[in-house]
Amino acid sequence: MMGGRSEDVSPSGKRRFRRPLGLRIIGGEFKGRRLQYSGDWSVRPMRDRVREAVFNILREAIPGSVVLDIFAGTGAMGLEALSRGASFAYFIEKDPVACQFLRKNVSHLGVNDRAEIIPADVFLWWKHHTTFATQPHVAFCCPPYELYSDAPDAMRDLITGLMRELPSDSVVVVEAHDRYDFSQLPFPERWDVRTYRPSRIGFFWKESSGDDAA
Question: Per residue in 59-69, pLDDT tens?
Fold first, then answer.
């Protein structure tokens, strides 16, 4: 996943760990800088080649934008955006271990003044979030795949809310499994959907304040 999470535990109920991947920033100011993460199986960073493809599509949208890294996991998406010129990034992640590594990476890259880590359940955060700034945003929504089946209404409300509330010239980037039907979302003809198996990534470009995704 892009940086999203899913629960993965051993039969004994303990969290499973593996040797951490060589996670790194792949473009911009911090290109080549390494990122830390725990190796927890519940955190599955996106492969470099797919992340690079996503940021190539977003090339013009990133500089000066505010970034929302939702279900942040490793934070790789938001940190990559900061490397490429985003003005600020919010990381929303409930797992305390992931947040610990996020803080280390933010400090390691020296972007403490351009980042805020929000240790919260995404769905609770969404119900109480503050009004978004008027400058363009790039929102990465990268949930555990099982949420599309376990909490379909909450996921649709979250994505639809981002489409509705973000200011003009913003982009909503949604990662899902490769069977997810983006046509169930508002403005289905406006979603640019790319397949990078086992993922599908949809891009919604909000063109004007007249877009009503309610």
Answer: 999 999 999 99
